Amino acid sequence: MDAAPTSTTLAGPPGRPSKGWHRFANPGRFLRLTDRLLPWLWGLALVALVGGGLWGLVWSPPDWQQGETVRILYVHVPMAWLAMGGYVALGALSVISLVWRHPLADIAARELSPVGALVGALCLASGSIWGRPMWGTWWVWDARLTSVLVLFFFWAGHAALSRAFEDPERGGRAAAILALAGLVNLPIVKFSVDWWNTLHQPASVTRLAAPGLHVDILYPLLACTVAFSLLFAAVVLARVRAAVMERRVRSLEMAAARRLDTAS
């Protein structure tokens, strides 16, 4: 089962040497790698989620102004970071797909975007829940919230467009172009609180010299971020693995059907 694929679907451009990331175009090699990696990733994610969740939601103190509602921070902020960081990964996969035509890049981008869209939706939902007691409203059309909503639309648009064509390659190319266009929105999301007056607070954690959060809140926030990041990586890698296996089985079925047609 670990032999080279019988179809060029995952084999990459003909004649290209199997070097660098192109060696993972061999589905057998990729599946062997994920066989070893995924159990550790799931285990680390579970341990980190339990530890980070207890630290943030149970053991950390309430905020002196926001009280217990500050605990939404431990979900909302990691979701926001993952929505942005994941989109950077989507942009990188799109470049690899368009420039080098790496077969796994299309598959990875296709499986990444639904997870990214879910993360973006959780960011918006948790922010809305947090905004209601803090701002007195569920939603305002300020720069930060609107740009994050646009980011969610790019995530969802990529997920839909990559599946909108019968030919996966056409869908992958169209979705990759859309993903690259969406990269323009990331600086707007990041610097919107600096460029415009918004209800959203400015950066608190990325000011490394003087972070705006007390360590009693900062450390569990970072722990929750690591936990959600590990879970995000595990889910995406598991989806990519399942997609590779599905394409490989389909390729073997098509090869078997061709042999039967030839024999008959």
UniProtKB/TrEMBL annotation:
Name of this chain's protein: Heme exporter protein C
Cytochrome c assembly protein domain segment(s): 44-200
Record keywords: Cell inner membrane, Cell membrane, Cytochrome c-type biogenesis, Membrane, Transmembrane, Transmembrane helix, Transport
Coiled coil ranges: none
One cellular component (GO) term of this entry: plasma membrane
Molecular functions (GO terms): heme binding; heme transmembrane transporter activity
Record organism: Humitalea rosea
Gene Ontology BP term (one): cytochrome complex assembly
Record flagged with keyword Transport: yes
Lineage: Bacteria, Pseudomonadati, Pseudomonadota, Alphaproteobacteria, Acetobacterales
NCBIfam families cross-referenced by the UniProt entry: ccmC (TIGR01191)
Family named by the database record: Belongs to the CcmC/CycZ/HelC family.
Membrane-spanning parts: 37-59, 79-100, 112-131, 143-162, 174-197, 217-240
